[in-house]
Amino acid sequence: MTMDRHFVITIGRQFGSGGKEIGIKLAEKFGIKCYDKELLELAAKESGMCQEMFEMHDEKPTNSFLYSMVMDTYAGIYNPQTMIEMPINQKVFLAQFDTIKKIAENESCVIVGRCADYALEDMDDVFSVFISADIDKRIERISKKYDLKPNKAKDMIIKTDKRRASYYNYYSNKEWGKASTYNLCIDSGKIGIDKTVDLIAAYINL
User: Measured at the alpha carbon of residue 148, what is the angle toward residues 146 and 151, in degrees to the nearest 5?
Assistant: First the structure.
């Protein structure tokens, strides 16, 4: 499936809902790229900061001034000229923010997580989607994927969702997972991964 017009699909997702898999399948369906962890490498190259900084702060906000000072000093080993400008978590977010905007301006794509819908809210033809699923479905999925016992999988899900929500709410002016924040919200646990992909594709084609 190909489309003549330029468009971007952003995907917010509960952990274990299959958001990344949905993003990849959507990208394949439309013949475009899906960006997830790839954003970290691109942002690192464009900003001149080391990739480890982006991985360390990936969807992880911090309000700790002391922590930011310590990490800023560490980052300074790689990029001393930006050492005193702002806390490292802010540098990482802004660099990633700029990378998301550049990608979206130059190509149709799918972007998973990382406040992409917020970064691109002023652009036309950006479709923001949030993927959720019942906790039992997510526990089952994460247990299989990481070979974990159900209680461990549930703990990982709760912590990851809390981290993602905190990151999103901290950096954006929106609320993570709230229906009014997105163009489309889908429960992938109800209809499955493939039907979720088909539903999003049909929405984009309207």
Answer: 135
Q: Say if CB 14 and CB 186 are below 8 A apart.
A: no
Q: What is the pTM of this model?
A: 0.83
130-145, pLDDT tens digit by residue? 999 999 999 999 999 9
Whether domain 8-205 has CATH 3.40.50.300: yes
Q: Which single residue is written with the structure tokens 């991964």?
A: 193
Neighbouring-strand partners of residue 126: 8
pLDDT in tens, 14-42: 999 999 999 999 999 999 999 988 877 78
Structure tokens at 66: 């002391």
Task: Output the CA–CA distances (angstroms, integers) from residue 185 to 40, 84, 126, 200, in the order listed.
Answer: 26, 41, 15, 9
Q: Where are the domains of the chain?
A: 8-205
CA atoms within 13 A on the CB side of 200: 34
Tokens of 194: 């493939």
Cβ-proximal residues to 130 (8 Å cutoff; 6+ apart), any chain: 11, 12, 13, 177, 179, 181, 182, 184, 185, 186
